[in-house]
Structure formats: C-alpha cells, structure tokens
Amino acid sequence: MQAWQVHQNGEPSEAMRLQEVQRPTPGDGQVLLKVRAANINFPDALLCRGQYQVRPPLPFTPGVEICGETEDGRRVIANPVLPHGGFAEYALADAAALLPAPEALDDAEAAALHIGYQTGWFGLHRRAHLEAGETLLVHAAAGGVGSAAVQLGKAAGATVIGVVGGADKAAVARELGCDVVIDRRAEDVVAAVKQATGGRGADVVYDPVGGEAYTQSTKVVAFEGRIVVVGFASGTIPSPGLNHALVKNYSILGLHWGLYNTKNPKLVQHCHEQLTELAARGAVKPLVSERVPLSGAAAAVQRVADGVTTGRIAVLPALENGAAA
Fold first, then answer.
1. pLDDT tens, 203-223?
2. Closest CA to 195 of 169, 161, 171, 172
3. Residue 78 has what DSSP assignment?
4. Residue 254: pLDDT over 70
5. Among positive and negative, which fits the CA dihedral 8, 9, 13, 17?
6. How does 75-84 read in b/e, with b if 16+ C-beta sit within 10 Å?
7. Which residues, listed in sequence order, are joined to residue 89 by a DSSP beta bridge?
8. Which residues of 92-109 are buried (b: 16+ CB within 10 A; e: fewer)?
C-alpha cells in the first residue's frame, strides 16, 4: 500500500515522503481500517516537527483522525494508532475506541466530527459549562478547531464573537454563524470585544492559539468568565498572571481531550452521541474546505502548519490522478 512516512523530523513538506510499504498488522485489540478520509490537524504538523507530546518511533505515518472502513464494511471514525497513522491507504486503530460514522455526513465530514468537535464539546460544556444567552469568544474562528467551537456555541444558544486573521477568514466566520466577526489584522481585538459586549466582556473564551490571543483574552473576559486553553497554534505558550485571575475573578481551564479516552471513555461515547444528533438535525456540519488525493497530503499538512487554511482539509486516498472531489 501507499503511505506517507516521516524518517526524520522537520517541516511537513520536507519530512513527509510517499512510499510503498507493507500493510500494518493489527496487534491485540486492534483492527485494520481502509482509510476513506483522513483529516489534517495541527498536531500532524507538530508530529512531523517532533514537537508533539506524543513522539512515535521513526519512521511513522502521521494522520490522527480518519473515517475508515472495517473488513465487514462498517463506516467508522477512529484515531489511528501511531506509528500507523491515517495518511495511508490503510491504518490501525483500537477496536474498543471505534465510533460509528454519522449517516448525515460524508466521509470527510464524518472524520472531521471527531477531534475538533469533541474538543469543542468538552471545552464548552464539560469544562466551561456554557449556558444559553452567554457570550462566547472564539479565537481562530475560521480554523478547524475554531469553526467547530463556533457551531457548537451557536447550537448551545450563545452569542458568538469570532476572531480571525484576514478578510477571507472573516467571510468564512460569518458563514459559520458568528454574530460578530473581528479581523485581528485590521481591528483592535480588545476594543472591538468590549464594544460588542457593552463593556462587559465574554463569558467564555475558547483559545486554541495562545500567545497574544491569550493576553487579549485576559483583557476581555467577563466577571466570573472562563478561559478555555485548548492549544498553542501561535507557537507561544503563555505564562498566566494568577494575580490577574484573582482580581478579575475569572477561571483558566485547561483541556486535553485525549485524556478522556483513558480517564473516562464513556464520556467520549456520550459526546459522540450528542454530536451525531446535532449533525442529524443540521445544527453542526464540519467545514471541509479542501479534499485532496493522497499524493497531496504533505503539501496540505504544510499549509495547515503555515496557518493559511480554513476549516479542515481532507485527504481521500480514493481520489485518482490528483483530481479533487
């Protein structure tokens, strides 16, 4: 089969090589899945660079989120078991962690209803307890993680403010349903949020960016507000001032969604049931901005790493001759 492999850590466009390899053999409790769609996540870029919290042995195949097909023809969602990731024709996954792919979504959309939406659901509902009528601020609102949070916030009855970088991404954020869109390249984020909220600020801030975005969050979070820290796409990890959290009376909440798979897997299943129901009634629909063939995976991962994409890019091994579907 064909698979992208990383033999030496580096930038995705340089580190990833498309090669002919043997199909992986399932271990105890594992299944072999035919990859129908593999979505690209920022952690895939970090894996290539050797900067992710998980460091699989070299060589490895990146790709942490797929819609796959079992040997008996079932369509499932899975997080592949590294080093046999999803940017390949076949991948391995833990049998106990397979989730049924929602019938309302195609392969690429189904794969995208996993990490980003699970992270959003746990962050907004389990950690921040977002309530209808509250104001939610989402950084990187047009990205894969942010777009999921926007849709989940709207589905929960919140007023959603989206922060983006650039006019094109602002248009995407509006289409996603943001009530207010702030272009950080053209506007003062802090002033714009305060104006949009009548000076009150945001009840919940969803931050997958870190760096300057986190600093802005502390300036616009409301009394008894909650800042949910879900990642550091900016590359800068903030050092929170706990004295500031004290005097402004807000909470800083960390979220590592992957821990729930071992700490409380029943919650992951419950979350998937909630997301499947939302998808069935059209309340959420993953934004898949591009569908590329397997041969285009490395370039696509690089674009995600460079922060120039919106929504998710899906790699579909069944696409032939470089033609997008």
1. 999 999 999 999 999 999 999
2. 161
3. E
4. yes
5. positive
6. bbbbbbbbbb
7. none
8. bbbeebbbebbebbbbbb
